[in-house]
Design a protein that fits this description.
This protein is mainly alpha-helical. It is built from 7 helices and no strands. The N terminus is likely disordered.
Amino acid sequence: MNFFMLNYTSIHVIKKNNMKNILLLLILCKGFAGYAQDGKLSEEKRKEFEAQKVAFFTQQLDLTPEEAAAFWPLYNEMRKKIGDIEVSIRKNVIETKDDAKGLREEDYRKKVNELLVAEQNMINVKKDYYARIMKILPASKVYKLDWTERKFHRQLFEKLKKEPPLSPK
């Protein structure tokens, strides 16, 4: 069917059921290119990333405006706490990698236990926030949250892979 030859019924269906999809496509088509020279996202790109994420999650989870208003502060708080734990895990791994020649088996055992404790902390944070989020969203939407995060990051990664590398200044 030619896009420009839509009949009234098709347009009505698009308006009713797919406006979130159209919005999402427009945001994603805008692009996600460019890093600041230090390799971190520029403030503009960070805001663009966040807008894309909000649009994607809102569409995938079918959030109403009221649900979204209550969901995003809790979700962002949860992601911040999990992100802090992930940073500590990366730091631990990097430190271990740098000191690898001087570590004994008992040191590795301690590092493994530290990693497991950190991962358990992430699970505990997630359990706490999921319980809180289920007070504002139906469980069916909360159930889709992990899948939505993975799908968003997978799509973002695929998009970044297709972009040409940045040229040095």
